[in-house]
Design goal:
It is built from 4 helices and 5 strands, in the order E-H-H-E-E-E-H-E-H. It is α+β, with helices and mostly antiparallel strands and about 160 residues long. The termini are far apart.
């Protein structure tokens, strides 16, 4: 696949429903393994089915011909003060053999279009501080780094 771009491939992107979760289970499991989690296809399937069945996420899958090769998962983020729903691009994964061909960008563009068409004001994402390839892609698309001097501080407490 090296040397090809998204324009050279027969790529389609589809928002999947709960009854189509089988298209993304293996990719989601690979995504989790990438982040040093134990492979568990059953867990992956249950997690994804729950998110979709409860309308807690939106998943777009990229296909080459009929083979799923990448996905992104968005979670809603609400602002009470602004009375709007925005989106967190939480997961983005491209099967290793299909990377550097523009598929990730196509998925992100699809997610941005989805957010715009659903009256969101922004799409937010996070990436590891050492994930330079992802940072380069996000910045090339137009995402801006949010520093520690934003309007609000983020706090978290562990509850386990």
């Amino acid at each position: 696949m090296t040397g090809l771009t998204a324009n050279d491939l027969n790529i389609s992107i589809k928002r999947i429903a709960v009854n189509e979760v089988q298209f993304v289970v293996n990719l989601f499991d690979s995504y989790r393994v990438f982040y040093k989690k134990q492979s568990d296809l059953g867990l992956a399937e249950r997690f994804l089915k729950d998110r979709l069945a409860n309308n807690e996420s939106v998943i777009f899958v990229a296909f080459i011909d009929e083979t799923p090769v990448a996905f992104t998962q968005l979670y809603p983020k609400y602002s009470s003060a602004n009375a709007i729903k925005n989106w967190i691009l939480n997961d983005l994964f491209v099967n290793e053999q299909y990377r550097k061909q523009g598929i990730g960008k196509q998925l992100i563009d699809t997610a941005i279009d989805f957010a715009k068409n659903n009256d969101a004001k922004y799409v937010q994402l996070e990436t590891a501080i050492d994930n330079y390839n992802a940072q380069h892609l996000y910045e090339a698309i137009g995402f801006l780094k949010q520093g520690p001097d934003t309007e609000f501080l983020v706090y978290r407490i562990n509850v386990d």
